[in-house]
């Protein structure tokens, strides 16, 4: 009965060809008809709210699917429902119509949606712009151009105005502001920090998540480099060069099965995470080895296939849910409306390409063999990416959102983020079970009444011989400081990474350090129970905790410092992004105030199931019995 209520409406699509991808897009567009307003300008998918107004939220539902629709039309495809969006342009920009989107204000959410609209005019003008009446065109031009004299956030948002102006330019509009567009581009280029990477804001911002890649900056640079090559050739070539460099780092955020590593905010955009790979093709970028068009095609399509099979990503009528692998409002932001997830339609950009393009003409290739069983330090995002032993994940230190964001410590402050196990977010503030404290050191100074996790990471740096380790500080209270070392796995113990914490505290503390959260049910669907050996179940003895289920194995062991006790914690439902019922192997400790350093040393084990297998490969306990060794430099600090 596992399939009952757990089958995606798109699971049968092989998603191997351009026609398959177009069919998937049509399958996402068709259900929107029932939720579209009579005038076509608004799409209403639910009643949850955002920090911005309802008209803007319904505009979001209208605009974001246009990323896919315009790509389909640009590539020679047809969609019978196109008229819904043509009508929407006409009525949404008409101040006298009841479905008017509203005029632009400073830092208005409407600005975000201008990006898709500008792109659609640039690539599918004949189908989406030319059918409009002269009066409607004038209204659209006035509405889009209304953002040119408005204040915008000093972030990737500036790209939205660039694309609004690019659309106005392609429409031959007098509202096109070339000077404004150049100024925005010049300022956006100040976000660049080298090796292909751009931060999402000015100097001082340490935020290099999917907005720096597929969601916004890299995607926008590549789309611009294709659409403005004649007018701005030097800048466009620079953007292509950045993409070539960036691709060699970004490939490490994807696994061999197509999953991307969940990290940062806006993850309800789902397979927008892979849109960078499609944008490389759209921009005709010359690929750096070991990337080929067959590899890029595989990275893109495997990711979309994965999401096409996630039943929880879709409502029963085929519309997208708010959440990740299942509906989950705990992990969202205050800007996620029911229409927000359709940002994923950026990943349909390859539909704009002819069948003869090397992306479509190439035979799909697996994840590059040269990148398997490797570990790589990524200096700009303060990540160490590894896939030793078949587990794709990053160790992370040093990032945080540049402004308060819901669940920020979970999205940016955890020690590790896994493509297989995801990460967890708090669902309450009263118990450790509510915390969802995977891959974090949670501290309490009130006997577990409340918990603090790493949020504002300071002094982050890479140290040691390649690939090195991450070292950083955080200060949960004025009289408590925590220094952490994160050491990646080695060939000798490929399924383990190390964490070392030095705590200096003037108050008594309780600590809870979690490993990877893992699916917490037995084969019969009941909760995991204590068991020894390779069978599904949990193990908690002395300073060790472990859980094995159909998702693989997760564990954590104390290997030095103050003694701690292992427990297999059953977290509250809906904390984890990947699975709604999870178990978290955790080490618990009690620490008295001390003028001396308190050391905590843990080894963390993770072995996901692979390729549809149920559970970890037989014989995994041999790997569990291995214990990694501390680098001499860190060991010397403990013994000083």
From TrEMBL:
Span of domain DUF2264: 17-367, 374-634
Pfam families: DUF2264, DUF2264_C
Protein name per the record: DUF2264 domain-containing protein
Annotated source species: Mycena belliarum
């Amino acid at each position: 009965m596992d399939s009952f209520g757990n089958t995606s409406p798109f699971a049968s699509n092989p998603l191997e060809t351009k026609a398959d991808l177009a069919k998937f897009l049509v399958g996402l567009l068709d259900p929107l008809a029932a939720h579209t307003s009579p005038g076509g300008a608004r799409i209403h998918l639910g009643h949850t709210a955002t920090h911005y107004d309802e008209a803007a939220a319904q505009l979001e539902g209208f605009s974001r699917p246009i990323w896919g629709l315009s790509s389909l039309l640009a590539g020679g495809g047809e969609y019978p429902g196109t008229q819904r969006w043509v009508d929407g342009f006409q009525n949404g920009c008409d101040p006298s119509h009841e479905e008017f989107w509203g005029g632009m204000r400073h830092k208005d959410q409407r600005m975000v949606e201008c990006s898709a609209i500008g792109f659609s005019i640039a690539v599918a003008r004949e189908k989406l712009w030319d059918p409009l009446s002269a009066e409607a065109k004038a209204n659209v031009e006035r509405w889009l151009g209304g953002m040119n004299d408005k204040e915008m956030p000093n972030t990737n948002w500036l790209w939205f105005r660039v694309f609004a102006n690019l659309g106005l330019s392609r429409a031959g509009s007098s509202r096109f502001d070339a000077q404004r567009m150049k100024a925005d581009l010049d300022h956006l280029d100040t976000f660049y920090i080298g090796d292909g990477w751009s931060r999402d804001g000015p100097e001082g911002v340490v935020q290099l998540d999917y907005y720096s890649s597929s969601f916004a900056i890299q995607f926008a640079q590549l789309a611009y480099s294709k659409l403005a090559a004649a007018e701005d050739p030097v800048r466009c070539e620079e953007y292509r060069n950045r993409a070539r460099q960036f691709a060699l780092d970004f490939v490490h955020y994807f696994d061999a099965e197509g999953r991307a590593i969940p990290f940062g905010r806006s993850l309800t955009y789902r397979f927008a995470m892979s849109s960078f790979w499609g944008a490389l093709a759209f921009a005709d970028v010359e690929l750096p080895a070991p990337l080929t068009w067959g590899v890029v095609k595989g990275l893109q399509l495997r990711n979309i296939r994965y999401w096409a099979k996630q039943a929880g990503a879709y409502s029963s009528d085929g519309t997208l849910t708010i959440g990740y692998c299942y509906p989950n409002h705990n992990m969202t932001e205050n800007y996620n409306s029911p229409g927000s997830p359709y940002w994923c339609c950026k990943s349909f950009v390859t539909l704009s390409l002819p069948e003869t393009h090397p992306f479509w003409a190439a035979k799909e290739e697996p994840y590059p063999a040269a990148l398997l069983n490797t570990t790589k330090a990524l200096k700009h995002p303060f990540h160490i990416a590894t896939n030793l032993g078949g587990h794709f994940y990053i160790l992370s230190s040093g990032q945080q959102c540049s402004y308060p964001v819901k669940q920020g410590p979970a999205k940016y402050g955890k020690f590790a983020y896994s493509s297989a196990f995801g990460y967890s977010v708090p669902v309450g503030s009263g118990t450790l079970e509510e915390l969802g404290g995977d891959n974090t050191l949670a501290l309490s100074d009130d006997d577990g009444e409340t918990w603090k996790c790493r949020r504002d990471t300071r002094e982050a740096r890479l140290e040691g011989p390649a690939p090195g380790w991450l070292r950083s500080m955080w200060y949960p209270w004025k009289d408590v400081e925590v220094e952490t070392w994160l050491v990646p796995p080695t060939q000798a113990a490929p399924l383990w990474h190390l964490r070392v914490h030095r705590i200096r505290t003037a108050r008594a503390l309780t600590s809870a350090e979690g490993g990877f959260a893992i699916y917490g049910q037995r084969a019969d669907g009941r909760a995991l129970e204590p068991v020894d050996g390779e069978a599904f179940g949990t193990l908690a003895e002395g300073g060790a905790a472990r859980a094995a289920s159909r998702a693989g194995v997760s564990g954590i062991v104390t290997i030095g410092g103050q003694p701690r006790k292992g427990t297999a914690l059953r977290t509250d439902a809906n904390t984890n992004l990947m699975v709604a019922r999870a178990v978290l192997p955790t080490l618990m400790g009690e620490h008295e105030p001390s003028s001396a350093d308190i050391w905590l040393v843990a080894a963390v084990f993770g072995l996901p199931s692979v390729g549809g297998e149920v559970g970890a490969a037989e014989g995994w306990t041999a790997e569990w019995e291995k214990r990694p060794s501390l680098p001499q430099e860190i060991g010397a600090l403990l013994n000083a």
